[in-house]
């Protein structure tokens, strides 16, 4: 799973194998360590649960989790839809959230594209 933070936005990109694990286990996560010591890390996660909102965020010290509704997650996984987007209100204004399928890069082949969704633009003429 890839994490991108830019301004007041948070984006996760999910590979096919991660999508399978998400559907089966209900949660996938990664942890980045910034220094020695147990508290110098950030865990970012994606999970699904019975929920009214299609997309939401849960924050705890050392962890951020984007929470998708189970129904919306299954619909997204079984379709050609690229992602799920939404915004939530936080203290500094809206926080924009995007969870999307990790598509294969068009300018790369081999190991960089091994666990990626087929790019919908792969057959498009330049």
Structure description:
- By secondary structure, this protein is mostly beta strands.
- The chain has a single domain, classed as 2-Layer Sandwich (Gyrase A, domain 2), CATH 3.30.1360.
- The chain has two helices and eight strands.
- A hairpin with a 2-residue loop joins strand 1 and strand 2.
- The radius of gyration is 16 Å and the shape is globular.
Please give the CATH class. Answer: Alpha Beta
Strand order, biggest sheet?
1-2-8-7
Average of the residue pLDDT scores:
88
Q: What form results from the Cα inertia axes?
A: globular
Percentage of residues in strands: over 45%
Number of helices: 2
Please write out the topology:
Blueprint: E1 2-6, E2 9-14, H1 16-25, E3 27-33, E4 41-49, E5 55-60, E6 63-69, H2 70-77, E7 83-90, E8 93-101
Parallel strand pairs: 2-8, 4-6
Antiparallel strand pairs: 1-2, 3-4, 5-6, 7-8
């Amino acid at each position: 799973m890839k994490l991108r933070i830019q301004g007041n936005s948070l984006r996760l990109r999910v590979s096919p194998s991660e999508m399978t694990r998400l559907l089966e286990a209900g949660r996938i996560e990664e942890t980045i360590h910034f220094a020695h010591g147990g508290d110098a890390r950030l865990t970012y996660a994606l999970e699904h649960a019975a929920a009214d909102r299609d997309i939401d965020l849960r924050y705890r010290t050392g962890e951020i989790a984007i929470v998708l509704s189970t129904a919306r997650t299954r619909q997204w996984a079984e379709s050609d839809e690229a992602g799920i987007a939404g915004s939530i209100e936080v203290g500094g204004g809206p926080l924009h959230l995007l969870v999307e399928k990790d598509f294969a890069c068009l300018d790369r082949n081999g190991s960089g594209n091994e666990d990626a969704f087929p790019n919908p633009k792969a057959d498009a003429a330049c």
